[in-house]
Inverse folding.
């Protein structure tokens, strides 16, 4: 019953209050009719009729009684980030460090293959044979597991190009505590910086049912170790002393 004047806008509020960490789906349908009750005429052709049936309501006399706009809505709950401690991975430039971090996921909705059968918690190792049910399978990029997807997001494309090749991340274990409804994912982070830097990133974890968790991270590369110390001994006042050394380029 809302009236909309020509060239005016209509705001349609959508409220989303999820009670579980899973994706919800809905459809917003806008049905527009003329205020005077008249219908829009149209040509009754076969091709046109197929397209119109998806987006219009037809009157008995063959005219168009109403026009439909259909907007699918996906509600994806995101866990709050208050009180989260930033995970810091620190390494000297031109060195390599490996670190394990644990991220707790509260409110995970259990699926058919998610719940362990015997114990309150279960630990699954990625290196077990692939035919064992519940094995976490790790792939490159936006990585998939039996239950979760994860990736590292960076504040900018430039930072992603600088840091993306220097950081490796693999999900190696998971632990499910059914008593408290918390899943803990254990990641192995590899950081091999080539120069001093300080970069932020966000670990995004998404359950296959639609819940999203975000964990802030900080990568710090400190100054590298000194390669060598070159001593030049003086041979006398106002006389030059020369020492030679080689520099090798690491790239073409």
């Amino acid at each position: 019953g809302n009236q909309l004047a020509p060239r005016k806008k209509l705001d349609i509020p959508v409220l989303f209050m999820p009670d579980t960490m899973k994706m919800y789906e809905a459809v917003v349908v806008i049905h527009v009719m003329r205020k005077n009750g008249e219908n829009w005429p149209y040509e009754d052709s076969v091709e046109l009729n197929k397209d119109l049936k998806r987006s219009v309501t037809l009157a008995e006399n063959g005219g168009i009684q109403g026009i439909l706009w259909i907007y699918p809505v996906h509600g994806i709950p995101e866990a709050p980030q208050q009180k989260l401690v930033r995970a810091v991975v620190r390494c000297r430039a031109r060195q390599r460090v490996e670190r394990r971090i644990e991220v707790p996921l509260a409110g995970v909705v259990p699926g058919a293959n998610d719940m362990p059968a015997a114990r309150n918690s279960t630990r699954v190792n990625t290196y077990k044979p692939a035919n064992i049910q519940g094995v976490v399978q790790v792939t490159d990029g936006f990585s998939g597991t039996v239950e979760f997807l994860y990736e590292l997001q960076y504040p900018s494309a430039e930072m992603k190009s600088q840091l993306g090749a220097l950081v490796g991340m693999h999900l190696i274990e998971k632990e499910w505590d059914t008593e408290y409804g918390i899943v803990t994912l254990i990641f192995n982070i590899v950081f091999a910086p080539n120069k001093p830097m300080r970069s932020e990133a966000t670990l995004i974890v998404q359950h296959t049912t639609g819940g999203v968790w975000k964990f802030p991270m900080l990568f710090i590369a400190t100054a590298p170790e000194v390669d060598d110390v070159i001593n030049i001994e003086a041979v006398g006042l106002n006389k030059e002393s020369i020492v030679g050394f080689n520099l090798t380029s690491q790239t073409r």
Notes: Confidence is low (pLDDT under 50) at residues 112-146.
